[in-house]
Design goal:
The complex is a heterodimer of chains A (99) and B (159). With 99 residues, chain A is mainly α. Chain A has 5 helices and no strands. Chain A has a domain of 30 residues. Chain B has one domain. The two termini of chain B are 16 Å apart. Chain B is mainly alpha-helical and 159 residues long. In chain B, 63% of the residues lie in helices and 0% in strands. Chain B is elongated, with a radius of gyration of 20 Å. The chains are: A mainly alpha (99), B mainly alpha (159). At the A-B interface, helix 4 and helix 5 of A face helix 3 and helix 5 of B.
């Protein structure tokens, strides 16, 4: 009995999600026309058109990650460095292990 | 498991046996070549320093897992690898500082640099992006290998 109720509620949630996420009368996650896209997401267009001349890499993702969003990459490298330093520092033999 | 002896849990301590070792010997060069390709072509094709470095570290960790810690410690000095990680981060910061006369992370090598200023789409182009990719790849590779080796070397449980 409990299992049936669980399955039915899962189905109900899925159905209501389908209704909500329908682009015709529900939430809209994307834009329909190119004009709307260029109006609200002009940053993407800037990266696509200017990335090659500004930074010089064919790979726009690398252009963004290493140039436009370089501070983010520095933070990520710092997080990686801290994690690895912490792991190595925690894993080395402690004094009370050396009997 | 090696004849009819009951398993003591110590067979895996040295290495993982002939089959895994042979497969690792065959596949590690290919994984290494692919990882180096991803790092080197980070500014041209999908991928980059982090992804290629992780692939290279996968080759190193496969070596460690397949051949055991004793073989791996002959090739990997984890102190050197920890230092190399710092060197990678410093090279990354230095490449970012190259264009500091305009702004941090200004790609001055690409706009008016003496090298790495070829046509877009060639290997020697895109200014500091190849340098940064190599630095991040070195950093990620050495960091992951150092962590895997230290996890294997400093384990406290009985196998």
């Amino acid at each position: 009995m409990k299992q049936e109720i669980a399955f039915l509620s899962l189905l109900f949630i899925l159905g209501s999600l389908l209704l909500i996420a329908n682009p015709h009368y529900g939430l809209k996650f994307a834009f329909n026309s190119t004009h709307e896209w260029l109006t609200y997401r002009y940053t993407d267009n800037y990266y696509i058109t200017h990335g090659l001349t500004d930074v010089g890499g064919n790979n726009i993702v690398t252009d963004i990650v290493f140039d436009y969003r370089g501070y983010d990459t520095i933070g990520e490298a710092t997080v990686l460095f801290t994690a690895i330093a912490g792991a190595v520092a925690l894993l080395r033999p402690w004094r009370r292990d050396e009997k | 498991m090696r004849g009819q002896r009951p398993s003591t849990g110590r067979e895996m301590e040295v290495d993982m046996g002939l089959i895994v070792k042979t497969m690792a010997r065959v596949t590690i060069p290919f994984i290494g070549i692919f990882g180096a390709y991803i790092v080197m072509h980070g500014h041209l094709t999908p991928g980059g320093g982090f992804q290629g470095g992780s692939t290279l570290a996968g080759a190193g960790i496969l070596f460690l897992v397949a051949f055991g810690l004793k073989e791996a410690e002959k090739k990997v000095n984890k102190k050197v690898y920890s230092a190399l990680e710092g060197v990678g981060g410093l090279v990354f910061l230095g490449a970012a500082l190259l264009g500091f006369s305009v702004a941090f992370f200004y790609n001055t090598l690409w706009h008016n640099g003496p090298f790495f200023n070829g046509k877009p789409g060639t290997l020697l182009s895109a200014g500091f992006l190849p340098i940064m990719n190599l630095a991040v790849g070195l950093k990620v590779f050495s960091g992951f290998v150092a962590v895997a080796v230290s996890i294997a070397a400093f384990r406290r449980w009985r196998g």
